[in-house]
Amino acid sequence: MQGLMMDRPLLTTEIFKHALRTYRGTEIVTRMVEGPIHRYTVADAGERVAKLANALVDLGVKHGDRVGVIGWNTHRQFEMYFAVGGIGAVLHTVNPRLGPQNAAYVINHAEDDWLFYDATFAPLVNAIAPALTTVKGRFVLTDEAHLGDAGGDGVGTYEELIADKPTTFNWPDFDENDAVAMCYTSGTTGNPKGVVYSHRALVIQTFASLLPSALALKEGETLLPVVPMFHVNAWNTPYSCMMAGVKQVFPGPRLDGEGLYELLEGEKVDFSAGVPTVWLGLLQYLQKTGKKLTHLRKGLSGGSALPEAIIRGFAEHGVEIQQGWGMTEMSPLGTVNTLPPHLAELSLDDSMPYRLKAGRAMPYVDMRIVSPDGHILPHDGTSDGHLQVRGPWIVGSYYKPESETLTADGWFDTGDVATIDADGFLEITDRAKDVIKTGGEWVSSIDIENAAILHPDVANAAVIGVHHPKWQERPLLIVVRCDGSDVAPDVLTDFLKQRLDKIAIPDAIEFVDELPLGATGKVLKTELRKKFAGYELPA
Amino acid sequence: MQGLMMDRPLLTTEIFKHALRTYRGTEIVTRMVEGPIHRYTVADAGERVAKLANALVDLGVKHGDRVGVIGWNTHRQFEMYFAVGGIGAVLHTVNPRLGPQNAAYVINHAEDDWLFYDATFAPLVNAIAPALTTVKGRFVLTDEAHLGDAGGDGVGTYEELIADKPTTFNWPDFDENDAVAMCYTSGTTGNPKGVVYSHRALVIQTFASLLPSALALKEGETLLPVVPMFHVNAWNTPYSCMMAGVKQVFPGPRLDGEGLYELLEGEKVDFSAGVPTVWLGLLQYLQKTGKKLTHLRKGLSGGSALPEAIIRGFAEHGVEIQQGWGMTEMSPLGTVNTLPPHLAELSLDDSMPYRLKAGRAMPYVDMRIVSPDGHILPHDGTSDGHLQVRGPWIVGSYYKPESETLTADGWFDTGDVATIDADGFLEITDRAKDVIKTGGEWVSSIDIENAAILHPDVANAAVIGVHHPKWQERPLLIVVRCDGSDVAPDVLTDFLKQRLDKIAIPDAIEFVDELPLGATGKVLKTELRKKFAGYELPA
Q1: H or E element: which one contains A224?
Q2: Which of A419, A437, A436, A439 is nearest to A428 (CA)?
Q3: Residues A199, B3: Cα–Cα separation, whole Å
Q4: Of the candidates A128, A244, B38, B458, which lies 20 to 30 Å from A323 by C-alpha distance?
Q5: Residues of B with CB below 8 A from A412's CB?
Q6: How high is the ipTM of this complex?
Q7: Residue B499 and residue B454 in contact, taking contact as beta carbons nearer than 8 Å
């Protein structure tokens, strides 16, 4: 028996309309690529989104066409989210850190018709322009006065494009399963793989993201997304903020500690979101300058495991750094680690084991742990295996995939190794490919890294497995020392012995000036493995 | 271009599964119809829901079959919500206040196969049993020991039915547009009309209900739903609580001030929900006994306009009574009046004009105001007209309808007259059929009632229009005086003159001992119109 409710689609357009009828005066603040602070309201944004929608239609952009964008977090990229999606086209957010070859690959693979980008990325775009096979025209996200040498033949500006367009648009209805956005994963091997988000998936996730157990953002609060709009829609925050009436502060290109600190304080930001390396950078800035965060209340960290040192460092500023876990393939939210009341009221020390977990699954995200030989393992907090997921905002197929995206029974294998306990707490043990297989046992590279980074002389750390004649693999710890430190390997080894099982103590420690970072700020272990290929462990 | 996300249905089953994996220990407390307090956890409920699902399948209940229930808010009816919906059958919640004729009508119209009911309603069911054309069997929501004279030929008990069944069930996937529940509106004219809720509609509404701008219920909190489970799924709260990990306290048959007070205090309830008559009853109990509410923080009021006196009365106990607006046809939530920060921080007096409005529309609830001649009116806070709505949890068609449910362009006419202001605040001026049309102008019966009830001698009030030779209609105010009061009509008229426009001052005031209430606790103006038919206004 069918339900007899209205057949109304879950389009992201409705989030935009909801904000316009409810939160007209809510501010949106941008540190522009051109330098100054730009400030306007949701009502202003509404008019510019309509202008852009009219401009895109005039350009000939049709339902389902792809529009590419390579940009910082700014009000202009924000406008593109709602204008491109609103007309039924697909916004392909391109990660500039992919490098020229991959950037050209993804733009061609997605068959982008138009390309928008910040002036910062004009050199990248100019370099790959001859290789782009589908792009009909390019627009720099600025005005004529600031175009400078970012222009060129057939290159327009965003402001000129929308200047004379009407400030209203008759937003169409269409199927909620239609695509609204695309994002390619920056895989460490093979070509990047495209994830195509439907309106439905992002809308359901937006609702879920605002649950009290997730971001719980509310009207009157302010969010600064450090996580880039070019990567998984800035963790969906533009949609979440518009649904909830939250002021957004876009940091533009200034993601350094000082730049972020100025905005966090000046705009009275309540909530921020970013990867651990960003949090670490901000923490080091605070420690170096002795400055205090006086307004920030909470920060969401995701993308890789959150080191304990970051939680403790921010706790001294009264800021709770909360871990989340997700993937490009999950739109991206899988868990947000909001502690239940009986754990939240514990001391920082007592609650730390739970804070270091990824958290509990959001509603409608099914998770299972599968052993290497294919058995479903219990949720007992100790059985670890491959983490597989299923749900309405999880990828069903990559775009033009080269192989099967899902398991035979329809689950997505995350590539993570994890445990889940009886209360639903997920703990990511390691990336499946980063686990160190030693003497028939698995050792987590993340556990060793998190222990190492607790040492006051360690600025950052990464662990890879290297060949061992007897044990198959053993851990090598690669450390970036803090400025001015000359801490010795045996000091660090002694430190680790107090914190780790014997099997996890690295057989060697190497020092480097910096760790190679991938397109989303994660440490590139593939690069480290190349660098330390053939490394000989001490006997 | 289609999105490429997983095709996973939004089933209410997933809410249940989410609670079981995340909030196992959360309590569910019931004041049983048998008298004692029953107390168990979500994990316990999970086992009993599985037992009931197995029992229903063994009975032969198939996907899409209707199962009727006439019951108080108890853990047993709660279990039916998830077991019946989880197997893909449809729970038809029957309002016992419909009266025998309508109860038989709706059970036959819905074609219920099985009927479950509390012992309280055995006389009603026994009386209508011969008229029921589709019911194959009946179960009283109790155990053998407490069946008493509620039993009879072919009547079983709930506890016996589920006693020996397995505590696990393999919950099936099916189309999210399939029906999960039915509820008939208690229309004042014609036959009751059936609304068939889909899983999709209730799931999306559940997400929306938990927004910070709506109920914002969170883990660790406690809700007591006074609003009955037999009416629009207790405003969806069983689903909302299970998604958020909120302790539920079911009041069973004791909805009087004392009964509610005991549970609110004893179970440390944070949040409650009910119609204004329930709030009024509790307030009068508090005033009579001098008792204080020490824990309750917030109450949601809906179903009819919330009188200012109730807001003020509870504010003295530190309780914020918040208005919502919805309908059976809207699953039921349309608005929840959560004030934005700049209004919430005002004094009670200064914020009162906003507290008396219905609030702002939830995301995905489209609203429009239509003039009697069919023009769409502006959202300017003054243009009033017929309120029409559209959205994914709004009725598309009644069950086996006798006429068109929607307008020609696909909107549902709510039967309310309303204004919407530029910030999205909805104000229900009146029910379209209750508006008093006087000399070419409309006067709101609700405005007069709300003004009258502010007088300390007025316990309750209702206004109807009566024929006037010159003005077509004029208002008649019908008042229930407080115990012991003998306040005179001219005193009340003077009181109203300070608060209302001249055109709204009633031409006459009549006193009655009580007002006739309908099946959902609303004043039955049709009864008042009958009682005062031919009423002659003073010259």
Answers
A1: strand A222-225
A2: A419
A3: 8
A4: A244
A5: 6
A6: 0.90
A7: yes
Contacts A21 to B, Cβ<8 Å: 361, 379, 424
Asked if B201 reaches chain A (Cβ–Cβ under 8 Å), the answer is: yes
Subunit contact A1:B90, Cβ cutoff 8 A: yes
Half-sphere exposure of B42 (CA within 13 A, CB side): 24
Q: Do A18 and B394 touch (CB under 8 A)?
A: no
Q: For residues A105, A106, A111 and A112, what is the CA-based torsion angle, rounded to 10 degrees?
A: -120
Sheet strands (E) in A354-409: 359-361, 366-370, 376-377, 385-390
Contact A18 B201 (CB under 8 A): no
Chain A stretch 327-366, residues whose beta carbon is closer than 8 A to a beta carbon of chain B: 331, 338, 340-342, 360-361, 363-364
Contact call for B212 and A244, based on CB within 8 A: yes
Listed residue (A16, A480, A499) closest to A243, CA to CA:
A16
Strand partners, B430: B417
Tell me, yes or no, if B316 is annotated catalytic.
no
d(CA B77, CA B117) in angstroms, rounded, equals 9
Alpha carbons B475 and B464: distance in angstroms, whole number: 6
State the number of CA atoms in the 13 A half-sphere of A189 facing the CB.
5
Which of 409-448 (A) contact B at CB < 8 A? Answer: 410, 412, 422-424
Assess whether A185 carries a catalytic annotation. Answer: yes
B218 in Cβ contact with A24 (< 8 Å): no
Q: Which residue has the higher pLDDT, B190 or B346?
A: B346
Contact (CB<8Å) A3/B331: no
* Selected residues 108-137 of chain B with any CB under 8 Å from a CB in chain A: none
A90 touching chain B per CB within 8 A: yes
B226: CB partners within 8 A, 6+ apart: B73, B251, B255, B260, B272, B273, B274, B275, B278
Which residues from B are below 8 Å from A64, CB to CB? 1
Of A6, A195, A363, the CB nearest to B391: A6
Q: Which of A207, A11, A237, A217 is nearest to B204 (CA)?
A: A207
Per-residue pLDDT reduced to its tens digit, A241-287: 999 999 999 999 999 999 999 999 999 999 999 998 899 899 999 99
Residue A12 annotated among the catalytic residues of the structure = no
Residues A334-362: pLDDT tens digits? 999 999 999 999 999 999 999 999 999 99
When scoring A4, A243, A380, A397 by the number of chain B Cβ atoms within 10 A, the one with the most, hence best to mutate, is: A4
Q: What are the CA-CA distances from residue B384 to residues B359, B430, B441 (Å)? A: 16, 10, 12
Q: Tell me the CA distances in angstroms from B326 to A175, B335, B444, one per residue in order.
A: 27, 7, 19
Beta pairing partners, A298: A271, A320
For residue B499, the one-letter residue type is: R
Told to judge if A218 belongs to the known catalytic residues of this protein, a careful annotator would answer no
Instruction: Write out pLDDT tens, residues B53-72.
Output: 999 999 999 999 999 999 99
Domains, in order of start, for chain B: 12-203 (3.40.50.12780), 436-531 (3.30.300.30)
Stated pTM of the model = 0.91
- Tell if the CB–CB gap between A399 and B4 is shorter than 8 Å: yes
The three-state DSSP-derived secondary structure of A117-144 is ECHHHHHHHHHHHHHCCCCCEEEECCCH
B6: left (phi over 0), alpha (psi -120 to 50) or beta: beta
